[in-house]
Amino acid sequence: MIAVDEHTSLPCLIYDLSEHGVRLVSLDATCVPEVFLLAATRFPEPRVCRAVWRGAEEIGARFVVP
């Protein structure tokens, strides 16, 4: 799930995953902000991501490391 804001999340599929980032597919990637939270069962806690590229239904993002 992509957290768009405090009250809105969007379902997504993780297609590519590395230690530095992720490629996501969502039905409406255009409404996802530049910085967002990504929650998935494979992560012990949600990850902060920054979008580096996007298409109509795909987003490429890097993980923001604190």
Backbone structural class = mainly beta
Roughly what percent helix?
under 10%
Shape: globular
What's the gyration radius in Å?
A: 10 Å
Our measurement of the CA-to-CA distance between the termini, rounded to an integer number of angstroms, reads 21 Å
Number of domains: 1
Strand order of the largest sheet: 2-1-5-6-7-4-3
Extract low-pLDDT stretches.
none
Order of helices and strands: EEEEEEE
Bin the strand percentage. Answer: over 45%
Tell me the major beta sheet: 7 strands, antiparallel
How many β-strand stretches? 7
Return the average pLDDT rounded to an integer.
Answer: 92
Q: Count of helical segments?
A: 0
Protein name: PilZ domain-containing protein
Structural write-up:
- With 66 residues, the chain is mainly beta.
- The chain is globular, with a radius of gyration of 10 Å.
- It has a seven-stranded antiparallel sheet, with no helix packed on it.
- It has one domain (2-60).
- The chain is built from no helices and seven strands.
- The model has no long low-confidence stretch (mean pLDDT 92).
- The two termini are 21 Å apart.
What are the salient characteristics of this protein?
mainly beta, PilZ domain-containing protein, seven-stranded antiparallel sheet, 66 residues
